[in-house]
Fold:
Amino acid sequence: MYRCIRTFFDGRDYTEVDTPILCTSLIPESTIENFATRFQNPFLPSTELYLVPSPEIFMKQLIAQGWGSIYQISHCFRNSEQLGHIHNPEFSMLEYYTVGADEQDSITITEALFASLLTDDSAEYLRPPFARLTVEEAMKTYAGVDLDKHQKQSSLVSEARRLGLSVPDEPESWEETFNRIFLTFVEPNLPQDRPLVLQRYPKQIECLAKQEGAYRRRWELYVKGVEVANCYDEDRNLQTIQTYYRDEYARLVQKRQESGSVIPDIDPQLAFIFSTMPACSGVAMGLDRLQMLLMGKTDLQGVILFPLSGMLKGGNTRNL
Amino acid sequence: MIKAGQIDKGTALLIKGQPFVVVDREFVNPGKGSAFVRLKLKSPSTGQTLQETMKSQDNAEDITVVDRDCQYLYNDGENFHLMLTDNFEQIEVPMANFPDYQYLMKDGETYRCTFWEAQLLEIQVPPKVVFLVAEAEEAVKGDTVQGATKYITTETGLKVRVPIFIKQGEKIRVNTETKEYLERVNN
Structure:
């Protein structure tokens, strides 16, 4: 699979890059917990270092420097996640940025990538063309909720309660209420006969994908109900990026102070550098999950050769 | 109170005043957004299933349940009459809460029962039970339209589809969940 992926991108004039896994600062992402470690040197002050949750921070700098379209296969790290059949804190990620493309072009590129990975024997649920569904349509079909009519948090909460969910009285964001409905009624019922691109996410879910009306130009790819990739049409407006990073960092600090977990350093230059990127669309794809699906499995056991759950149970020699 | 993130399979929760047991739980991190716990719950008394998604920081009301042995005495058509074997106290529970249990429980038999305070949540009928064939129609020679099976009635009144060689007075093992015949039991 790895060889096929490299052949695919090399044949399309992408440059393969290899950026650091260990770094001194991160992009502020309040929902991703990090792994931290300490750099020690007798001649330098001791510094906290982080394992990257994705190579985005470096790859976007290369795009801004004019490298053109690039791709990378690297290990990424996310703390505090479940050790489960489709989760491991260390995982393999394919990230590709296509200069001059938007998120619709990225769907076409990803369909071609899938086609290059499949054989005649591959299951139907892996085959392009991908089915396409907007979040708005999915919420209507599977939860009976018309998002256009429930743009206010209070009215969305009423919908959640009407559907039988117990939403506490404490204040919460529109996004959190949306997720309660989406995760209970929509995500488990999405069609699985073909790969599915779920696109146009509500604007209330803040991120750096370009906004268009009440929605944002991003998508997630589900294969057999498993979330495999996500994609943005990257927002390059300096003001938007700065505001987003400032708010996201405030949320991050508040959450981490409550939980006592690592608060990473943020480089104040990042927003400026990212605003100088040419128009581009980036896709991040979980390769362990993709490998699992290509092998016809439903569990990462036997795909990730030494899963952390096994090491925690029996030491790192007893996993095979 | 328990944080949703600490809920595990088997945890008993009070949801809108009704007791439920968690049969499945999964952590989900949407692409963007805080961590959620997706729960599948089952009401032990009515069998009703429920799906809930909670933020891992949400509070849920957990309840303590205890298992006690009860002897099944009889039913009067509306209620089951049971006796707690540890203090000989007799209790009545509506048969409607435990549909078809009258066909699965045997008079005088002791069952493990799950209680939340005074409320009986579950009567734990074993997954496989041996029943006596109380009534069986004679197999008609050459009648293979039914795929060589016939219906019998057990001593508890349960109707089970069995192979034609099963006779009245014999014992059979039955899956109590699907109410299907498993095998003939030799004395």
